[in-house]
Amino acid sequence: MKNEKLGLTHEQEQKKVTRGVLLGAAFLMATSSVGPGFLTQTTVFTEQLAASFGFVILISLILDVFAQMNIWRVIAVSGLRGQEIANKVLPGLGFVLAFLIVAGGLAFNIGNVAGAGLGLNAMVGIDPIMGAVISAVFAILIFMVKEAGKVMDKVVAVAGVIMIILVVFVAFKTSPPVGEAIVRTFNPSEISFFAIVTLVGGTVGGYITFAGGHRLLDAGIKGIDSVPLVTRSSVTGIVVTGIIRVALFLAVLGIVSQGLQIDPDNPPASVFQLGAGELGLRLFGVIMWVAAITSVVGAAYTSVSFIRSFHPFIEKYHNWIIILFIIVSTSTFAFVGKPVTILLLVGALNALILPLALGTLLVAAYKKNIVGEYKHPLWLTIGGVVVVVVMGVLSVITLIEQIPLLFD
Description:
Strand content: under 5%
Number of domains: 1
Helix content: over 70%
Radius of gyration: 21 Å
Order of helices and strands: EEHHHHHHHHHHHHHHHHH
Number of strands: 2
Distance between the termini: 68 Å
CATH topology: Amino acid/polyamine transporter I
Structural class: mainly alpha
């Protein structure tokens, strides 16, 4: 059978659809991890560590690879979402994991919506709150379409490409010392463990770890036979994140190496303005908006996917619940502003989600009632255990440091 319009066989159509879903899942994870917070963190840490921040990026990418590949594989092989796997490992654990991820996703989505508003403000000069509302309407329209998943795949893929092009352009404009960056990536003059845990937590913490895996599951890509496809998609997502991260690092390093002063009130915006003048500021607006809107979509979609299996009503109306999630986030920003105390508390708890989630799925990888006859690679298990231990210790330290701030 051929598609009359395109002249494609059914098999070719299926391959095209699968390729679109794989790219969509990869970019959903990548763009979800590159939000407003990511832009600010990368700028601030590059200013502090200069070329040695390259080492932080290298370590965080290695940890990302083991976290993502382990989690995506177990989700695909089991055919179950993260919370369902956790409940099979230990009854009730899935509900705890779902609560942490939904609470964290909702709180941080307030920051994502705020970032979208600031992006439109820098791009075209409109009020940030009005910009946030317009952005929320855009995100809501995606989930009102009949085939919302396919639309989301296309939107995040296009957004990811736009981000890469613009950030690479600004990196060229700032003329960074690439040679020094390469040397310090492997021989840093200064190491910041806080920067590592912050970057890893921000790029694969909370809901982000599950964004791509859950998207593939919803599209029907699961089972042992799907492992090569799932691996390719997860690695693609990490590569995209890495390209954006390295390009942004080099753009900031170019400014820092010239001795130019970065505005502490809005570090990433000042980097783009110093690097490319008024055009740079407008480009920053585009990048900030794209980074924020894709994070809004990713946070809402993945957070709700963690409660879909709890009741048939949620499963049936999950798109409308995603829309409600976005409305609540936007309303909170518009009428209350950022609830700093809640963000601090949830931010501290969010740091614990990665080791908890990854540790749970590593246990699941060896349970036949979850993965059947699948044999999980030992090298992935060892790498995953290292991530659990490192992130577990560092995030507990971060949590202990954050709690006193809540009572200041």
